[in-house]
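Help needed: design a sequence for this.
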C-alpha cells in the first residue's frame, strides 16, 4: 500500500508587504505533515518560468505537493512581478522580487508562530526564465558595479546549498540566433530593444565570493522545442570551469527528461530527479534494538567516521537511537555530509588521513547494566573544521569523504546519563565502507539492476520515526540517500564471545558517565586501535583492472538477464497448463538490504 504523506498548504503569504497586498509579492508554502520528526528541515524553493511575462505560483501547486511528498521537506513557490502591457517592467525588476523573497525567508517567523524549515539550508529550483533570474543573483557580472540591486546578502549565499536549473535561458543573444521571433515576443519587452544583450549573459558571469560551496544541477529535456539544449550546455561549461577545483560541484542530466518545456513539470521524472539531488547531501545513523538488549535497560553507541569519533549517545531498551552528526552544543548539531574528496601531491598529507580510515563509518555498541542519573547537557564543543585535501594516493579509496555541515538547532533536549557499562569491550562493532557506486558494481558487491531511488522509497515507506530503518536481523543500520556512492557493511564483531574481532587490544574501559568530555582521549584510543579490512589502495587495483572487472560483471549480468528471459519464455508456455506467480528478486518499490 502506498504511503502518501499529508501536505498542508499556506497560501498567499506576503514577502514584501504593501497596501493593498499585491499577489505578485506573495508565496505559497507546502509542508509535509506525516513525519513525526519536528526538527527543522531544509527548504525547497521553486521559482516559476513564463518568459518574464506569464504564469502564477498556483500553476505549480501540484509540483510543489509532489516535491514535498517525495522529500518530506517544505516547498515554497513565489510570485514575482511580470512584464505585461499594464506593467511594462524590465530587468532587473523581476529578479529583484525573487531576491527579496529569498532574503525574506531567512528571517521569517513562520505561518503559525514557528518556522517549519531550517533557513540555513535552502535548495533553489529555477525553470526557464527563472534560471536566468537565479544565476543573475548567485553569479556576478564581469562589471561588478552592474546590477547592484541583485547582490545577495552574505547570509543568503552561505545558507544556499544547491541550485537546480531546468530548461534554462542564460544567453539571450544565443537564444535569438535559434529563435529570432522571441525578440518581439518577450525579449525586447523584458530587456529593452537592443542590438546586443551581452550584459545579461550569465554564462559570462563568475562565482560570487561566499557562494563557492553551492552545488549545481543543470537539466534539459530531449523533448523541449522552446529552449534548445545549447543554453544548458553553455552554463554547464561555464560553471564547470568556475568550479574545476571541486569534484561534482556541477552535474548535468540531459538524458532522462523527454517531455516538452513545461509538460515535464507535471510529470514524474523531473520531481524525482530534483528530490534525489536534494536528498543526497546528508545522512543519519540510526540504530534499533529489537532484542531488548538482553533484558538490560539501555545500550550506548559510539559513532566514528573516517577514523574519528564524532558522537556518543544512549538509547533505551527496545527503542531507536539516532545520530544526526557532530553535537556541538545542548541543542545544536553539525550534520554528516558527504563531500567531494580533494587531493594533493604533498607527501605531508599522508600522515593526516591514513588509508585504512578513509571511507569508513564505524559503530560500537555497549550494553548498559543500569542508569544511575540524568542531568541536562550544557556541554559546548567547537564545531569541526573542514578536513582539507588528502594525499593523491587515497583516490582509490573513493571519491568522497565525510565532513560536517554548519551547526543548526535540533528538536528535543539533550541530557547526560550516568550509566554502568555491562560490557568492558564493545558488544558488537559495525563497519560501514562507502565507495562509488560504479566500483561496487564492478566488484560484484551490488547488482547492476537499477536500485530504487530514495525519493521513490520515501513515497511508499514511513519515515524512520514511524518505521525504523533496520535490517531483518535487528542489527543497527545506517540510513543515507542513494547517490553516486553506496555503502557496504562489514560486521566485524558479534556477540560477547567474539567482541574483539577487528579491534584487537582495545582499551575501552567502564564509563561511569556517557558524555562528551572524554572525546579527546577516546579519539586517541580510536585511532590507535583502528583496524579495518584491506581498503582499495591496499591492493594493486588500477583503472584498467577496475574496467576489466566492470566488463566482466556486465557480461555476467547479460548472461543472467538471458537466463531470466529464457525462464520467462518457459513460464509463458507453462501458463497454458497452470497458473504460476513469479516474484522478483528485487522488488521495484523496496530497498535491498545488502548487509
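Sure. Designed sequence:
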Amino acid at each position: 500500500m502506498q504511503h502518501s504523506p499529508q501536505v498542508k498548504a499556506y497560501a498567499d503569504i506576503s514577502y514584501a508587504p504593501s497596501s493593498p497586498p499585491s499577489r505578485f509579492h506573495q508565496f505559497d508554502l507546502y509542508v509535509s505533515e506525516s513525519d513525526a520528526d519536528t526538527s527543522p528541515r531544509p527548504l525547497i524553493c521553486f521559482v516559476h518560468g513564463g518568459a518574464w511575462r506569464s504564469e502564477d505560483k498556483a500553476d505549480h501547486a501540484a509540483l510543489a505537493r509532489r516535491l514535498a511528498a517525495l522529500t518530506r521537506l517544505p516547498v515554497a513557490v513565489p510570485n514575482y512581478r511580470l512584464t505585461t502591457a499594464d506593467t511594462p517592467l524590465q530587468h532587473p525588476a523581476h529578479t529583484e522580487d525573487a531576491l527579496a523573497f529569498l532574503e525574506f525567508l531567512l528571517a521569517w517567523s513562520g505561518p503559525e508562530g514557528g518556522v517549519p524549515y531550517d533557513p540555513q539550508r535552502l535548495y533553489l529550483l529555477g525553470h526557464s526564465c527563472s534560471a536566468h533570474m537565479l544565476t543573475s543573483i548567485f553569479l556576478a557580472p564581469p562589471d561588478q558595479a552592474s546590477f547592484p540591486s541583485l547582490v545577495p546578502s552574505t547570509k543568503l549565499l552561505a545558507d544556499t546549498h544547491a541550485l537546480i536549473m531546468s530548461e534554462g535561458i542564460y544567453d539571450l543573444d544565443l537564444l535569438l540566433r535559434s529563435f529570432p521571433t522571441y525578440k518581439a515576443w518577450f525579449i525586447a519587452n523584458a530587456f529593452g530593444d537592443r542590438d546586443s544583450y551581452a550584459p545579461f549573459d550569465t554564462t559570462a558571469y563568475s562565482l560570487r565570493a561566499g557562494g563557492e560551496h553551492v552545488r549545481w544541477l543543470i537539466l534539459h529535456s530531449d523533448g523541449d522545442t522552446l529552449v534548445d539544449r545549447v543554453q544548458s550546455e553553455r552554463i554547464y561549461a561555464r560553471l564547470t570551469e568556475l568550479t574545476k577545483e571541486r569534484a561534482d560541484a556541477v552535474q548535468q542530466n540531459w538524458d532522462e527528461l523527454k517531455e516538452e518545456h513545461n509538460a515535464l513539470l507535471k510529470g514524474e521524472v523531473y520531481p524525482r530527479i530534483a528530490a534525489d539531488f536534494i536528498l543526497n547531501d546528508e545522512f543519519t545513523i540510526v540504530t534499533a534494538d529489537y532484542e531488548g538488549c538482553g533484558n538490560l535497560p539501555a545500550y550506548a553507541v559510539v559513532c566514528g567516521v573516517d577514523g574519528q569519533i564524532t558522537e556518543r549517545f544512549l538509547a533505551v531498551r527496545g527503542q531507536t537511537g539516532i545520530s544526526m552528526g557532530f553535537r556541538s552544543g545542548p541543542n545544536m548539531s553539525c550534520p554528516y555530509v558527504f563531500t567531494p574528496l580533494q587531493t594533493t601531491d604533498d607527501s605531508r598529507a599522508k600522515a593526516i588521513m591514513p588509508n585504512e580510515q578513509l571511507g569508513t563509518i564505524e559503530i560500537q555498541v555497549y550494553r548498559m547494566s543500569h542508569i544511575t542519573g540524568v542531568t541536562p547537557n550544557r556541554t559546548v564543543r567547537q564545531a569541526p573544521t573542514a578536513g582539507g585535501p588528502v594525499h593523491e594516493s587515497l583516490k582509490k579509496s573513493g571519491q568522497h569523504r565525510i565532513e560536517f555541515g554548519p551547526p543548526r538547532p535540533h528538536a528535543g533536549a539533550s541530557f547526560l546519563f550516568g550509566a554502568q557499562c555491562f560490557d568492558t569491550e564493545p558488544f558488537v562493532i559495525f563497519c560501514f565502507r562507502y565507495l562509488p557506486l560504479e566500483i561496487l558494481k564492478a566488484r560484484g558487491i551490488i547488482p547492476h539492476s537499477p536500485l530504487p531511488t530514495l525519493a521513490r522509497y520515501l513515497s511508499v515507506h514511513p519515515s524512520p520515526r514511524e518505521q525504523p530503518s533496520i535490517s531483518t536481523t535487528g542489527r543497527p543500520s545506517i540510513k543515507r540517500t542513494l547517490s553516486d556512492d553506496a555503502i557496504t557493511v562489514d560486521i566485524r564483531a558479534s556477540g560477547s564471545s567474539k567482541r574483539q574481532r577487528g579491534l584487537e587490544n582495545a582499551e575501552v574501559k567502564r564509563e561511569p558517565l556517557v558524555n562528551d568530555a572524554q572525546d579527546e582521549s577516546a579519539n586517541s584510543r580510536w585511532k590507535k586501535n583502528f583496524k579495518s579490512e584491506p581498503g582499495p589502495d591496499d591492493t594493486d587495483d588500477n583503472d584498467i583492472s577496475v574496467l576489466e572487472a566492470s566488463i566482466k560483471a556486465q557480461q555476467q549480468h547479460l548472461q543472467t538477464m538471458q537466463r531470466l528471459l529464457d525462464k520467462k519464455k518457459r513460464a509463458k508456455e507453462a501458463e497454458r497448463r497452470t497458473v504460476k506467480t513469479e516474484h522478483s528478486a528485487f522488488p521495484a518499490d523496496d530497498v535491498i538490504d545488502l548487509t
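Residues 116 and 150 are 27 Å apart (CA to CA).
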